[in-house]
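Same chain as my last thread, 335 residues:
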Amino acid sequence: MELRTKSKRPGMNCYIDVFYERTKGFSAFINDRNTYKMVLVRSGSFVMEEDGEYRVITAPAGLLINEKADFKVVSEDGVESRTLFFKPTFIREEFTFEALNSGKYDKFYSAMKDDGKKTASDKITSTERKMDLLEGEYEFEECFSDSIYQDYLLLSEFFGRDRNIVCYSMTMQEYDTANRLSASVRYDLEEQPDNFWILRVRYFIISLLFAATADFYINWRQYELYKDPLVADVSSYLWNHLHEEITLESVLKRFSVNKNTLNDAFNKEMSMSCMAYLEDLRVNRAKKMLQFGDESVSEISQICGYDDTSYFSKVFKKHTGQTPSEYRKQMKALC
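reply #2:
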């Protein structure tokens, strides 16, 4: 199948290299070798394998997958996803895969200022280091203001982090924003209401790329890897059911494992027992919601699996030294 969209408008006999698909689970074309993929995971959780290790991703989340990736899903639970396929030449005709992977645009970055550590010939090729340059004492090439290099930076998440798949968590507010842009792409691709639909599709994709490369996503990138598939599967389940009542007995029954085997695996991998890890997940989710969300403490308590708000506050203070309200006040002051 060609992942492209044909114009239905009179007089516009053309195709564009953009395709949108909404599916339960993941698209059958997720490992297409001719496109970049931007995936929004609306619900559920899944475990993916990377070089013999396992990564747990829980919704809402996003994935950036390049043309070289081998995306392997080991297990999934209730996943619904939206996938946007596109060729980088749709953003700019110079951006073939060969050109982007060749390093020809790396002159966007130059050397550290005169401190003896770098010379002008020391080009930085890792996007992860490039992002670090933005906070350091570095100089940029004269082409810094050229639009081609700015467009290149938008796409650099796909090819510059020494990995073929980048995963990042999202708050519900961030997901809703990305989903609206994604839905706008879908509408224009399917309905093509006027002769400007291609222009709008390009605008919406660029807006999604801006969101995916924005600094505030960096802290939410999901880089955690698990060596034990049992730990990965249980972690995925815990993430996806944080709002529910979960007991050790229910976990043991669901995964047909005994208590010692489960806790030995978690202690070896996470340096804590399974239920201690569940508590840690719930507190960390609460911290993110308190910092970025507008829900009340009582609502957050319920979402994180605590029916008793007073008990939730006690657990939260044990982990952070602050009550949920004190933590939110401190985070808002920092922002």
